[in-house]
Fold:
Amino acid sequence: MNNQNNRKKYYKNNLVNYKNRESSNSDNAQMILLMGILLAISVILISSIGADIADLDIGISTERSSSLLTEFIHIQNAFGPSFNYNLVDLNISTIPLQVIFYGNMTNENITEAFNKTRNKFYILELQHDILFDAYLNDYWYTTHNIDGTLTYSADVTLELDNGLTKISRDIVYLLICKPYTK
Structure:
């Protein structure tokens, strides 16, 4: 009888230990499952926030000047060549280091190229909270070179305003173009 009682106690103790062990394993499994769910949610959340930030399309140039005058000088130097590039087709000739501008300069082409250039500079400066504006005051035919290159002059007013300071200047740019040959 003693042997049978010992068996009952043994099975009873093992059953309790088994239940405790099962409960302990269940708690561990629940914690692991909970941590996995939290990790998955955080990964999804971080990726969606990252996608939103990447979609803002914010571009800040590292070449922004701290002075409005320095920024104006950079614009003044870059506006003329940009105006010329928007006016004509850029072709690189077979002769090394020679760039030839081809196009037909007309009143519509000059006005269209000026508006395109002004809009590009406006957007670039607006990213720095600076208002840029330009006006095409006048343009005229200057010379016809022996090689057929046409030169026009364009009188342009450039304005730059950061809310505290406004800089304005009239500048004459030379627009150079070689007409298409047929």
